[in-house]
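Q: What structure does this chain adopt?
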Amino acid sequence: MTFRQLNFSIIKLALFLIVGIQLGIYLNISINQSITIIVGLILLIGFFIWISAKKIGNFVWIDVFIYCATILLGIVTVTLHDEISLKTHYSNFIPNEKNEIANFQFIIKEQLKPSRYHEKYIIEVTQFKTRKTTGKVLFNVAKDSSKTTFNIDDKFVTESAFELIRPALNPYQFDYKSYLERQYIHHQVFVTKPMLFRLDSTVKTPSGLAALIRRKVNKNLNVHSFTIDELAIINALLLGQRQDISKEIYDNYSQAGAIHILAVSGLHVGIILLLLNFLFKPLEFIRKGKYIKIVVVVLLLWCYAIIAGLSASVVRAVTMFTVFAIAMNLKRPSNVYNTLAISAFVLLLLKPNFLFEIGFQMSYLAVLAIVTIQPLLSALWQPKLKVVNFFWRIITVTVAAQFGVIPISLYYFHQFPGLFFVSNLVIIPCLGAILGMGILVIILSLSNSLPNFLASLYGEIISLMNDFVGWIALQESFLIQNIHFEVADILLSYFVIISGIITVKQKVFKNIVIFFLSIISFQTYLLIDKFKNTGNKFVVFHKSRYTIIGIHNNRSLTIHHNIKSDSILNENLVVNYEVGMNIKTIKTDTVRALYFFKGIKLLAIDSLAIFNVKSFQPEIILLRNSPKINLLRLIDSLKPELIISDGSNYKSYEERWAKSCRLKKIPFHQTSEKGAFILSN
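A:
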C-alpha cells in the first residue's frame, strides 16, 4: 500500500472508527474483553505485515483487515476511557446504603456555570478513606454569604453521600444524566462550605496554571471600567470561559444566529493563526527560520488552547489548525478533507465521547459544508470591487456553513434564526480586529500597563456588538421557533443537500434523478408525519410545587394546571412536549378531581383530602398539594391499583406514602424519582 493510498484512506479510517465508537457505547464491554480485542488487534496487524512482506493477497483484503481493526480500535477506545470499569474507581468503595456519608479526598478539575442555589465543579476523587482512587464527580457547593472561592487544583477532604444523577423527569426534556455520563461522571455530591477542609497542595497541572492566568487577567481587568456583561464576553471570546454570561446575553446571541461567536472554536483559532503567521513572518528570513516559525506558531496555538481551558471546541480547533499550520508554512498542498479526517481521528482516539457532543458535530459539518458548498455559491457572482467581493465571500461562507448545520441545529435547538446572515455579515469582518485588540488588552493587563483609554475603547466595542446582537434578537418575526425535527428529518435533509451538491458539480441525468427523488422522499415523509395519528396519552408531568396534567389527543393537547400566572405555555416541560410530539393546538384548564381515560378512572386528591367516593372505584389515585390523609385507610377504602405522587407534595409526605404502598404491595409512582407518569392507548 502506497503512502498516497493511505493518505486518502484516512477518511475511511475515521468513518470506521466512528462506527467502532458507536458499537462500543451500545456493547458496553469489560476491560478483560477489551484486552482480548487488543490481543486480537495485534495478531491482525501482525498478519497484515506478514501478508505485505510475502506479497500475497490483494489490496481489497488488506483494506478489509485494516477497517475491521479500526472498528475494534473504536470499541476498545470507549471502554479504556471509562474509568468506572477500573478497580480503582471510587464507585467500588462508596457505601451501598442510600444517603450514607463517606469520607473522601478530591481535587477540583473544572468550574461549571453555577445554578441558582449551588456553585458547581467537576472534581477528581483521589482518595476514599485510605484507598487511592480515580473517577470524576459533579460537586455542588451550597451558596452562602461568604466570599470563599475555590480554584482548579485545590485539594480538599470532606464527608458527604454520593448520589446518582437523576435522569430527565419529563418527556423530551434534556437528559443531564446522559450528558454527564458521556463525560464519565456518574455521581454527584452536595456539601456546604464549612464541610470542606482544604489540604496543602503544591501540584499545579496545566489546567490549574491556565486558571491562575485567567484569574490574574480578570483581576487586572476589574480595575478598569468594564461592565459585567463586557467582562463576560471578553472571557468567552478570548479565554473560552462562558460561565459568567447572563441568560439574556446568551439568548440574544442564540436568537441572532451568532452563538458560535461565544465559543472559542475554528473561527477564532483560524483568525489567531493568521495573526501569528503575520507576526512571525520575519523568522522566515533567517536560517531554518521556516521550521522555527512552525514550532513557535504551533506551540503558541497550544498555549492558547491551555489558557482557554482545553474545552472540547478549543481542542478540536487547535488540532485541526495545527495540521493546517504545518502544511501552510511548509508550502505543502493539503487536502482539506484529509486534514479534517486526521484531526477527527486523533481527537476521537483521545476523547471518543467527543463524537456525541453537539459542538463536535456542528464544527465538522460546518467546515465540511464551507469547503464543499462555498466555492459553488461564490461562483454564482464574482464582483469586481474588492469591498463588495469581501462581503460577498462572508455571505457565501455563512450560508454554506448553515447548509451544514441546519439539520442538526433544528434537531437539537428546534429554532431557525432568519437573520443569521445579517449578524454574521457585521460581526465576522470585525471579529479579527476584536480578537487582535483583545489579545493586546490581555497582554497589557497582565503586565499592569493597560491604558484606561484603550480599556474604555475595547469595552465600548464589546457593548456595541452586544447591542447590535440584541437588536437582531428583537426581530422576533424572523426567528422561527418550536420546529419539530426528528432523526429521519436529519437523514433526509442531508440526503437532499448531498445529492444537490453532486448534481451541481456533475449535471448528469442520473444525479438529477437522485436529487429529485431525495426531494420527493423528504416531502413524502413530511406529509406522512403531518397526518399520522400520534395517539392518545394522559400525562402527569413533574413540576416542583405544582400540578400539571396533559391530555394528549392526536395533535391537540389540553394542559390542566394550578399555576396562577399565564406562563404555563412557556414552561419548558410543555414546550418540550409540544415540539417532541408535534402538537398543533394547546388549550389550558384547571385541575379536576376526576379524570376518565380509556376506561380508567383517576381520582385526584388535593390538600382538602376529600376522597369519600361511593359511586365508583378509581383504578388510580393522584396525590397532590400534600393532602393530610391516612393512606393505609384510603387504600383499604378505595382499593386502587396505583398511587401517583406529583411534584406538588412535601418530600416527607412522599416518604411516608412510599412506606404505606410497600406495606400494602401497591405500586407507588413518585414523579420526583421516576419522572412523569404516562398512560397511552
